[in-house]
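Consider the tokenized backbone below.
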């Protein structure tokens, strides 16, 4: 199984989780938040919500998909 994180923590991220859950080769391990740090105190679908700074530690070990429905997606790469 390939570990995967979903960028985002709102409705589209949860929809992406539902879709990815149907792919046997992938396992969602976390959701990533970049605007409201207090969201990191919660879980979504039993997975932790991590602050965007954690992404650097996952380079090379995790895949990522975007679950953000806004034109502000670039904030993840700024």
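A designed sequence for it:
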């Amino acid at each position: 199984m390939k570990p995967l994180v979903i960028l985002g923590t709102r409705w589209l991220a949860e929809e992406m989780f539902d879709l990815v859950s149907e792919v046997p080769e992938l396992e969602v391990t976390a959701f990533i938040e970049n605007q409201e740090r207090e969201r990191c105190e919660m879980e979504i679908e039993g997975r932790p919500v991590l602050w965007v700074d954690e992404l650097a530690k996952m380079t090379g070990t995790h895949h990522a998909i975007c679950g953000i429905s806004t034109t502000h997606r670039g904030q993840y790469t700024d």
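The mean pLDDT is 90.
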